[in-house]
């Protein structure tokens, strides 16, 4: 076999073995990393109003028909909304009390509505309508710099109150 071909083959084998080592080593148990049990095992979420009515239901990437849009009155606030997470059986999970878990949301820079966390209530929000129209929001559970859970973009309808 040609010497250059042997060298090339040796380099390829070395790179392949090194790559496998890096992959397997990085996936190994590391006592310094966060344990799986510390992650919120949510697969869905519901938003409930102050009368405990479900106004939105999201589960495993899908919205429940009839509970698939957040309606926000223009130039007003919604009632306080409780953000409640669901497990794989659609059972409500107790509110997360770990201060390392926080509620996040992405309004994509919307100028039509805003989302505000209720002071002192980690899993409660209210939404304010700023301009009539349609938009969207994503909800997340943030944990140590990453999202343990993220919804799809959820439709938000900002409507005028007829008087």
What attributes characterize this protein structure?
alpha+beta, elongated, Immunoglobulin-like, five-stranded mixed beta sheet, 163 residues
Kindly describe this structure:
Strand 1 (44-48) and strand 2 form a beta hairpin. The chain folds into two domains: 1-33; 36-159, Immunoglobulin-like (Sandwich). The protein has one helix spanning 3-27; strands spanning 44-48, 54-59, 62-63, 70-73, 81-86, 101-106, 113-117, 124-129, 133-143, 146-150, 154-159. By secondary structure, the chain is α+β, with helices and mostly antiparallel strands. 15% of the residues lie in helices and 38% in strands. The protein is elongated. The relative contact order is 0.18. It contains one helix and eleven strands; from the N terminus they run αβββββββββββ. The longest helix is centred in the N-terminal third of the chain and has 25 residues, at 3-27. The strands form two sheets. A six-stranded antiparallel β-sheet has the order 3-2-1-5-8-7, with no helix packed on it.
